[in-house]
Amino acid sequence: MMTVSQSLRQPALRTEGHDQDAAVDREALLGALLGTFPLPVFYKNRHGRYLGCNKAFESLLGHARNGIIGKTDADLDPHHHTEWHLTQDDVCPESGGAQHCETKITTAGGAVRDVVVNKVVLSGANGAAGVIGAIVDITEHKQAGRDLKKALEFAEGIITAIPDVLFEVDEDGRYLQVWTRNPELLAQQKEMLLGRTVNDVLAPDQAAIAMEALREAAKEGVAYGRCISIALPNGERRWFELSVARRPSADPAAATTLLAFSRDITERKQAEDAINLVRMQLLSVLRTMPDMVWVKDMDGVYLLCNHAFERLTGLAEADVVGKTDFELFDVERARFFRESDKAAVEAGECILSDEEWVISQENGQSVLLETRKVPVMDAGGGVVGVLGVARDVTELNVSRQKIHQMAFYDPLTSLPNRSLFNDRLRQMITSAVSRGQRAGVALIDIDHFKVVNDTMGHPVGDELLCQAAARLKASVRDYDTVARLGGDEFAILLPEIRQGDDLGRIAGTILERFKEGFLLDGKEVFISCSVGIALYPDDSADVNDLVKYADSAMYLAKRSGRNSFRFYSKDLTASAEERMRLESDLRRAIERGELELHYQPKVLLDSGAMIGSEALLRWRHPDMGMVPPFRFIPIAEDTGLIVELGRWVLREACETAAELNADGRIPHKVAINLSVKQFQSAGLIKSIAEILEETGCRAEWVEIEITESLLLDQKDETLHMLSELRSMGFSIAIDDFGTGYSALNYLARFPIDTLKIDRSFINSADKRNEELVKAILSIARCLGQSVVAEGVETAEQAAFLAANGCGTAQGFLYSKAVPKADIMALWLGSSMGESAASTMR
């Protein structure tokens, strides 16, 4: 077979004309064939000169055919790889056959292209006549190869860089490929995994999780977030998170495979478990806490809350978490919560506030919460939220208010008590000093409160105090303070006094309001009060002195007839100080032997004979001498010392009565005064009986004198005690008869033996008093009672009494009260037959 070159050089067997036509035909045929060929084609002689080419070759080099024929590569492009081409052209005839070589060609546009040159030898009669070649542009192919290589290198780099394990599996979970830089994280060696399925390698429960992820990825394209636990060959168990995706494929008919990333999350899982454990412990603690606890983020969204929060708000945690205050509460309350959250964040520390929450819209029930809020910080110190803790202090607040009320307010009247009064007094004086103003202190005492308390009962007395408190508050200005200091004693602080008359007007208003009747136990009772006033700075600038001076003024008002007010004077202070001294000395008078009894004789008006005497207490003070009874008896009554003094008087008087009646001739009856407080003390009857036994005195030698007021106090108890005394043999006398406030019906009800007409009726020259004396004598005769006239000082008085039927008298006309020795002497003289009048003169 001939080669291509041989066929081109084959001599024609035709005639010369015919030969020329055939050559032309061959050239035309070759040109037509090469012109339509898309690859650049050329042919050269053995010396490297171009003999021909096609259009594609012309376009490649950028030269026309005429500019190419007869030229070498060096002629066409000095920078071309001429030497290399010549060498290859020379090698090609020598080696014979076809040759393929890869090189670079610079195109007409200046671009360097990668090409493959395919050459074959053209043979002639004398051997190789040249070469014919075709050029294939492989630039894009080589670039694609380079890109693919880079992509593969990049993929391998990623796989090498990431710690995850990458699997390729089919839909049955069969391992097709495994990539990892950490083979120790595989459940089995890579070679053992390939070809096996997930169910063959993993535990059944974990394999089920993995297969579920694969099925989801095959259906949906991706599957994320499922975690499985794998036991490694070294015995360690680790956790992995699966991210599965369906592998894309350009071939719709290709089998579906899946790519699964398996990320080691053991440390994260352990951290989550630790966090969850702490969270569960925290939640357990929060469940046991009685306080409300909640956490919000910076947007005010609740992250958690405890059971106490649920109980108080009535909202379940599931309804709270993820929501804001504006979604849970009314706008006003939500705005308040947000403002307090903001304050905590801005403060950067715990803030405390009291918040009142309405927990029942139906009945308006509310609770008071003591709330603490503190900003929550992240690891970098940034604020990420707010933690709130609230404690229900409703009952505690009520207790605090009760304690405050008990500490500073009177439980009966709800007025400030002495403690709060003293505090406000100091504030008033401080303010008065700074403003240069005057201020007043008034003390008020209810007149005869004890009578109401004892006769109508303590509940009625308490009601009187409450009504009195209301009237006092209504009598003063809004900014004045009315306080109850104790018992029936009230006090008023009067700041901003412009002139002294202001105090007088206020005191007058108080007295006027007290003139209105008090409705007590269904009865209208009229009660007055006494008011004492001291003024700052006129009287004193000392708070204690002001109270003391107002108290002195009040007692002056009482001594002046009650139902009045008095201002302080220095004489009042001196009197009060003397009273305190007398009280102190009186407490020790018995043990010091400073007390003694004097006896004033009682005589018969018709014969002048002594029939008895009245025991009267005297106090011989070591410094002040003889202290008259009117100075210390009221003190003893007020302080309760009268009970101890009365017992001493009883014993002394009974001893004297026993001595006076020792001869057994004419009886001498000793009158002894018993106070109301003695009757109110427990064991009076028993004490009297013991004294009688100790002294050897007989009851018929003693007359018990009581006041009319006793008959108004505790009537049933008084009647019982008087009846017992009468049954023991004592006679009962009413002292100072006619000066009391009671009705006369008690004379018939109580066991009364004697009426003693008060000296005020005897010493008065008023004719009306004489008529009253006659009336008393008439009443006594009707009731079968004897009468003793007190304070008889003249013979005319004695004659008047005798003429009107009075049997017995005592007074200075006969004798003053004398010591025991003197009364014994007088009695002895009287017993010897002398008249009492002559004996006592």
Automatic annotation (TrEMBL):
Pfam families: EAL, GGDEF, PAS_4. GO terms for molecular function: cyclic-guanylate-specific phosphodiesterase activity. It catalyses: 3',3'-c-di-GMP + H2O = 5'-phosphoguanylyl(3'->5')guanosine + H(+). Residues 437-570 form the GGDEF domain. GO terms for biological process: cellular response to nitric oxide. Residues 1-20 are annotated as: Disordered. Residues 26-72, 151-221, 278-348 form the PAS domain. It comes from the Bacteria. Coiled coil: none annotated. Residues 99-150, 224-277, 353-405 form the PAC domain. Gene3D superfamilies: 3.30.70.270, EAL domain, PAS domain. This is GGDEF domain-containing protein. It comes from Rhizobium sophoriradicis. The lineage of its organism: Bacteria, Pseudomonadati, Pseudomonadota, Alphaproteobacteria, Hyphomicrobiales.
